[in-house]
Sequence to fold (599 residues):
Amino acid sequence: MEAYMLTETEFAVLNELRKNPAESQRGLAQATDLSVGTINSTIKRFLQLGYVDGLAITEQGLTALEPYRVKNAIVMAAGMSTRFAPISYEKPKGLLEVRGELLIERVIRQLQEAGITDITVVVGYKMEQFLFLEDKMNVKIAINTHYDERNNHSTLKIVEDQLDNTYICCSDNYYTENVFEPYVYQAYYAAVWHDGPTDEWGIYTSARGRISKTGPGCADAWIMYGQAYYDREFSKKFVKILNEVYDRPETKSKLWEEIYADHIKELDMYIREYPSGIIYEFDSLDELRSFEPDFITNIDSSILDNICSTLNVEREALTNFSPIIEGLSNLSFCFEAAGRKYVYRHPGIATQGILNRCAEADAEKIAFELGLDKTFIHLDPDTGWKLSHYVDVTEHFDYHNPRHVKQSLDLIRQLHTSGKCIDNRFDIFAETAKIKERLLGGGQAGAQKRLDFPDFAELDSRAAKLYQYCQADGIKPVLCHNDFYDPNILVEGESMYLIDWEYSGMSDYACDVGVFIGCSDYTFEEALEVINLYFEREPSASELRHCIAYVSLASYYWFVWALYKEACNEPVGEYLYLWYRFAKEYGERALQLYEIGEN
Fold:
């Protein structure tokens, strides 16, 4: 005989009797927010089924609730939470202490207090910092090795075999009340009301509360906020869909909520509304500080210490933290202190062992003295962190804006002719070889295969031959930026600044010219015009071929660098193809010019 499936009303009544035996039907009606008439008819039905004895639940009643028992919980703790800069650069957000308790420990404790003891914490970013939870909180640990290349759907893929009647929780939520229950009727997503516009995911429902539409951006609406709950049927369908779409390229960046939204007609999920003041997500340091004013004062953070000691301010003066997305090598964020805006750079993992931070510090000081970079405040040569003034960029550098191009070339020429020196030689061909060694060393999974493609040997041998020709030209090294491209050229009104000197060193002047062209979308004819602008005249045949060769050498360097970044799971996007194309095209042209010169 099939188990009797409870209606939502029957579940509410039976579950309430499980929690609190009622003294009267009127009291039960008040507890469940149902009418006395509904309670009366429901109790009659339960008496017939043997689920209650008077107003007390029986063993048969508990058995009827069993299909709705929560089996387990998944706590997602793999991501980096970049919006929570700068604290998340040093510590996973779930391990922050709020009101005397670690965020993740509070979530786990509340789950356990609700009777949910089968809990798996899925970790990724700084995973070692979470391992203590296994013994301390009696939870299981699962590792998501794809956390830095896929969105949170990959966490659910890791635990797909565990998805059943399952709570899906974030490690960094804070619940002022325990929202978890041992029995839940159906799949739901927690929601709070938001007045005004927001980028959060809005929820739109049918009359019965089934979610019919959801997506980012809404106004005056219920928004997804807090935990989700999968019932057994939802889990079964969602896992099937997840496996069907997982290997599609467009899935990589999707939240699990996006996959759900794409298949919302197939997946029954309901809204669970909560009043304000129960669920908190803390998307930024400023949000958390508004909840706990002393947080920024008490948190152990070398980044905040660096800022305060350099600017001579107290932590309380730091506000409006916001991550900066641009940049291929580092993590950066902006903030305000004492009425001024600043940028802090946190060095990226893939730059370790590649960059000479002492040389960068020396170059930054020279750039400041020459007026090339007025943003510079301080750089720590030991760790690579840097503090700068924020520039209110009025327009982005445009490779096809004549004023921008001339002004930037004037800056780089000023550097080359300054006579300034630093104790660092940046030989772009030798630096390329160092990165190739890292790839061939196989420090990252599949790194060696990054150089295993049909024309790599041709690219490499061409670069070696061009380098020999360029060396024979006998060019005296000058101080160069070596990362002279648009993100590092800031336009503020009529002023222009050249920032981020981490690749600077004594180099061939043509290295900067090569990088500038190699990062553009110039045609060959446009590139020739840029070379003319740099010299402020028509270059000689030897100067021209030398510069064209360096477009190829610089592009080849950055192409190999991009392969290394990809091996570190830090994709650089379309630049990789651009550098490959320019390394090949300009290399062929330069070789022809050198060989003509020899004949």
In short: The first helix runs from residue 8 to 19. The chain is about 40% helix and 20% strand. Residues 396-598 form a domain with the Aminoglycoside 3'-phosphotransferase; Chain: A, domain 2 fold (CATH 3.90.1200.10).
